[in-house]
Amino acid sequence: MRVGVKDNVAVAGVPMTGGRPHARAVVPTEDAVAVERLLDAGAVIVAKTNMSGSVFEETRNPLDRRYSAGVSSSGSAAAVASGFADAALGVDQAGSVRWPAAWCGLVGMKATHGLVPSYGLLSQDHTIDHIGPITRSVAENAALLETLAGQDWRDPYPMAAPPVEADYTSALDGPIKGLRIAVIGESLEPSGCTEDTLREFGNAQKVLIGLGADVVRVSVPLWTDSFAIWLAGAILAQTAMIDSLGQGYGHFGRVDVSRVATMAGEQLIGDHGATTMFLTREHVRSRYLGVPFGRAQNLRLELRRQVEAALGDADLLITPTSPTGPAEVPSSSFDLVDLATKPPEERSEAFIRAAPILTCCPFNLTGHPALTVPSGVGDDGMPRGLQIIGPQFGEHLIYRAGHALESATA
After folding, report:
1. CB 144 within 8 Å of CB 87
2. Rounded-to-integer distance, Cα 333 and Cα 335, Å
3. Which residues of 181-202 are buried (b: 16+ CB within 10 A; e: fewer)?
4. Which of 39, 83, 200, 370 sits most deeply, having the most CB atoms within 10 A of its CB?
5. What are phi and psi of 16, to 5 degrees?
6. Catalytic position from the list 6, 123, 187, 322
């Protein structure tokens, strides 16, 4: 397979920009674990792929260049959707695998936290980092995850428990008759879903019911606050990542010393590109004694408990992957505080650009696996995605449901 690799994942000898000017690129001396495993399995790396929000040009959607390919694994999704690559690696820290995959009509997996080793990644925070595959089909996605999954001694945060045997392709053809699949109610109108998104999501539910699944509704009360929780945690975690020269604190993982040297050099000249985050952190620390950061972590744990409770009443959960269709390009930049603190009806028009964060980031906080599969076409003629969520290490069941939906709607 011809595979593209997001430009914050290391390929030995190839500059890794992380979306920054080439002059500041790191040239890795070793492959990321995920890349190493793909190469060992016979894949060919054909590209480093662009990241939305980078210094490079906005990635346009190959299905219609008037639209964005998503954030931030946009180049990975565009490479697959255009046929330039058979598959690609994205990195999902708030939805950045599932979001571009959904907007480009593709399949994208954010696996259980820790299932895919993250060594070799330009990390934001070890507790939300997920490297994941973007493909055209569920079967291809399952095959790639089989190759990527499993512990590695270099990983910063090894899994608390090893996964079940990663034979995901063998689970694809199992029936979904009798499965209890629950819609998260707060992921619909409360998350700002448009009418055509709700229509296509409803059509997908009908297909699942026709295949024998029992579709019900559950509540996750903290859902609509999840991005505010994520943002508070990200401010503290990402400034700590910069303070620690890109390594993070308190882990047993291997250290890439060349990256440490590059980050140290940038700090010496004051060029770390996160001034606003540092100012925000210091304001919260001096004005509120840092208490909001602690509250955000506690709310994160409560959100995980609520998702676990919902899964106690169902085998799988489903939501729209994005409340809206793709944003048009060029579009104005989005205000994260605006997105995190205002109800949908009060958000700016730029809300559409970042709307998928609201339906994707909860599972970066909780660590549950989540897969997006195409689920129809909106009034704009662009794809809509269905997000399928399962229990920890429940990828087998997620792929089975995704493959059943894909087969029934092909």
Report:
1. yes
2. 7
3. bbbbbbbbeebbbbebbeebbe
4. 370
5. -115, 105
6. 6
Measured distance between the N- and C-terminal CA atoms of the chain, rounded to whole angstroms: 23
Comparison of pLDDT for 111 and 266, the residue scoring more: 111
Bridge-partner residues for 371, per DSSP?
109, 388
Q: How far is CA 378 from CA 134, 188, 195, 318, 360, in A?
A: 21, 15, 9, 18, 19
Residues 6+ apart with CB under 8 A from 95: 110, 356, 357, 359, 360, 361, 364
Q: Provide the residue type at 238 as one letter.
A: Q
Mean pLDDT for the chain overall? 91
User: Could you tell me which residues are beta bridge partners of residue 282?
Assistant: none
Position 245 scores a pLDDT of: 81
Q: Is 177 a catalytic residue?
A: no
From 120, 139, 157, select the one nearest 18 (Cα to Cα): 120
> One of 52, 96, 187, 226 is an active-site residue; which one?
96
CA distance 238 to 248: 9
Residue 341: Cβ within 10 Å count: 14
96 is catalytic: yes
> How confident is the model at residue 335, as a pLDDT?
62
Instruction: Give the homologous superfamily in CATH for domain 2-409.
Output: Amidase signature (AS) domain (3.90.1300.10)
Per-residue confidence (pLDDT) for residue 55, from 0 to 100: 76
Tell me which residue has tokens 């994520």: 230
Long-range contacts of 340-348 (CB under 8 A, 24+ apart): 340/227, 340/228, 340/231, 341/228, 344/190, 344/191, 344/192, 345/192, 347/192
pLDDT in tens, 314-370: 999 999 999 999 998 875 556 666 666 667 666 655 566 788 999 999 999 999 999
**What is the per-residue burial (b if ≥16 Cβ within 10 Å, else e) of 293-304?**
beebbebbeebb
Nearest to 388 by CA among 377, 380, 396: 396
**9 Cβ neighbours under 8 A, 6+ residues apart:** 16, 32, 34, 35, 89, 91, 120, 121, 122, 131
Tell me the pLDDT band of 136, cut-offs 50, 70 and 90: very high
Spatial distance between the Cα atoms of 281 and 321, rounded to a whole number of angstroms: 31
Distance CA(113)–CA(125), nearest Å, equals 12
Place of tokens 């060919």: 44
Residues whose CB is less than 8 angstroms from the CB of residue 283 and which lie 6 or more positions away in sequence, other chains included: none
Active-site residue (options: 68, 72, 76, 118): 72
